[in-house]
DNA sequence: TATGAATGAGCGTTCATTCAT
DNA sequence: CATGAATGAACGCTCATTCAT
């Protein structure tokens, strides 16, 4: 019973957060959304921050489930039997899918990126989120590099940071302007990346 | 005289915004930072929002000045005499420079991205900011494509969206974690992009 | 068993009261201090006030035990065989001792004096406390007067009120400022009182 | 205008404080008592504590005025032409008068003694109050001692601490029980003290 | 233009109390 | 007896906004 109520409050917080944003969401809003008395939200969560961090984590859970269900490994070490390029291709497709299906979550996450710059608790949650997501890209990048004829100058982590960054930047553009062609941007990114992976790297890159 | 006062208030708002974040900045904070009475801020700006939008625009101005001073064109049409690849190279270098020198502005912009998702006025300012910045990348992308042996499947705009997105995503990672190697990520991005530009495109990209 | 639990709660209330003060002590604090569920405190005590009154009474008990152990009579009628002056001397010494050893209790009592002025239930407990303590002084005062060559104009009760008042006033000064020399003040009081007792009284007191 | 409003709020705080006690008095109570909006009380005083400290000081002011009007010196150095014993006699009379006329203030002060034990800001205000008042007694005690044939073992400060303590203790008894004979207690104290002053001291005091 | 006093709604949080189990 | 989930009113405090001067 207690756990159910707690869950109801966290779910309500997630919905309220997506609808109104971090700072426009009050504890009263959440309690009303959950259909409980205001005091009860504070009974389960000492502060508003604590509740909202729980709501963010709750929001991320289905996304991570989805990833592992798609055969994208959540931890280091390329899963056996999944070709590196194939995994990468799936990653790009999944990203497009995600941009369509998890708009709510992206709204929340982007909101938190702003909040996290001024709020340590939220900042820590955001940092963890980025680290986790970027690691997924890193794993694939590493596997792809292993198959490249000439090794790139950049490390797998640096490449992953650039690619995850692009995913995030594309998501932001889509969020702020629903008419934005996110699929096109991801496809362009994929085209660039696969050309790079196929061609090998470094020898023709102009550097100072 | 009146304009000077107005400017002082906008400047103060910018400083307060960067220091404390959108939601932690009060009109009183701004008035104090500007050294004027609280009422005066409301004399020049009907609402807090209006003032903060003006502050954001003010904050972006010096950055755009810098770009044109560097020979990066602010409008369409590649400036005569600047080689496309050279412009691109300068763009990447400038981005790294910007990540170092304009941390304040990036904090503000990222904060605004969060706010803009739930606040139409701020949203419009953010949309304009993105559009302007992305257009810069587009111009260069167009020039580079013109020199590519085989034309890519993706449009210059789509490529620009991906690359600007990556810039933004890298900036976010740097903001949230000061230890993040932003230069490495930008270099990795440059390596990928230049390989792509040199190799031509499309023929080897695996597509479904 | 039930009584033991009740006692544990009252003891916990006393400790919490001393530690945090009347108004900063919540029922939850007390329940936690006692290691019982919040509801149980309300099972034994209808209101917070009732519990705190019980805690005050509990706190006073060891002090009264101490007094009777020292041969100071708790009720009227000078105990046989204890010289009046000797009893008085012991009273002053005991007061000094008490100021050192029962700081906790004095904090509580002083807190209650403040609360009691605005809260009838606590007020009644405080009144009873004063009455009991002052009566001890009265008994000794009566015995001392009986041995004075010339009887004072003031009644034993009035004298006891002044002396107990001084004890309390000295305790307050000590509580509010730990550097205060309470022993010195009690010694000064004793010097004054014994001079008075020895000299007889009234004839030289200037009165209007 | 601003100062008038501020004063109205402080006065209202004083009245509310006396009526309800420190912890039962809310900022809303005070604002209503003053006839102003709640926010205004916070406009003039950052915290409730700050306002209540101001209210205590305000409450003490008329009392200190009264004392100096009566020829009781507020600082060290016996005022010329006022005989020490006469000053002492006036002090006792004034104390009785005060107990009758300043009941409200004593309620407030006693309340603060309780609060001050757990609240540093209030504690500091209380400490200052005690120090000031006790100093008045010290000045007179010093003058009286100067005229005593045999000097007492106790210092003037210790004696003043005992006597001021008695004043306070008597006030407490009167506050907590309106039927208490405060005049009788002060008279008894005066009788004791004057006998002591007239007889000289120390030689007959029984000491261990 | 410029001031800053004044407003009042709203915030996060606390807490005595109730009650189903 | 005992638990602890649930309530809801109250608190101190903040703040955008208004307005008399």
Care to give the gist of this entry?
The structure is a homotetramer of 208-residue chains. Chain A has 208 residues and is mainly α.
Can you describe what's shown?
The structure is a homotetramer of 208-residue chains. With 208 residues, chain A is mainly α. Chain A has 2 domains: 1-46, Homeodomain-like (Arc Repressor Mutant, subunit A, Orthogonal Bundle), CATH 1.10.10; 48-199, Orthogonal Bundle (Tetracycline Repressor, domain 2), CATH 1.10.357.10. Helix content of chain A is 74%, strand content 0%. The first copy, chain A, has helices at 2-20, 27-34, 38-44, 48-69, 84-101, 103-116, 120-146, 156-176, 182-199. In chain A, α1 crosses α2, α1 packs across α4 (48-69) and α7 (120-146) crosses α8. The longest helix of chain A is centred in the middle third of the chain and has 27 residues, at 120-146. The first copy, chain A, is elongated. The termini of chain A are far apart. At the C-D interface, α6, α7, α8 and α9 of C face α6, α7, α8 and α9 of D. The structure holds a DNA duplex (21 and 21 nucleotides).
């Amino acid at each position: 019973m207690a756990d159910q109520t707690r869950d109801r409050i966290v779910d309500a917080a997630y919905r309220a957060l997506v609808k109104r944003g971090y700072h426009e969401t009050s504890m009263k809003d959440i309690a009303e959304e959950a259909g409980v008395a205001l005091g009860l939200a504070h009974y389960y969560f000492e502060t508003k921050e604590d509740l909202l961090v729980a709501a963010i984590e709750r929001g991320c859970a289905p996304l991570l489930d989805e990833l592992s269900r798609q055969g994208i490994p959540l931890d280091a070490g390329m899963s056996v039997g999944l070709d590196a390029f194939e995994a990468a291709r799936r990653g790009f497709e999944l990203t497009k899918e995600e941009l369509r299906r998890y708009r709510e979550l992206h709204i929340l996450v982007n909101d938190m990126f702003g909040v996290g710059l001024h709020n340590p608790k939220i900042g820590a949650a955001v940092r963890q989120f980025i680290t986790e997501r970027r690691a997924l890209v890193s794993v694939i990048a590493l596997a792809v590099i292993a198959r490249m004829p000439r090794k790139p100058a950049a490390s797998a982590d640096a490449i992953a940071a650039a690619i995850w960054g692009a995913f995030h930047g594309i998501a932001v553009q889509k969020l702020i302007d629903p008419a934005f062609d996110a699929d096109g941007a991801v496809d362009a990114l994929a085209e660039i990346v696969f050309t790079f992976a196929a061609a090998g790297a470094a020898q023709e890159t102009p550097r100072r």
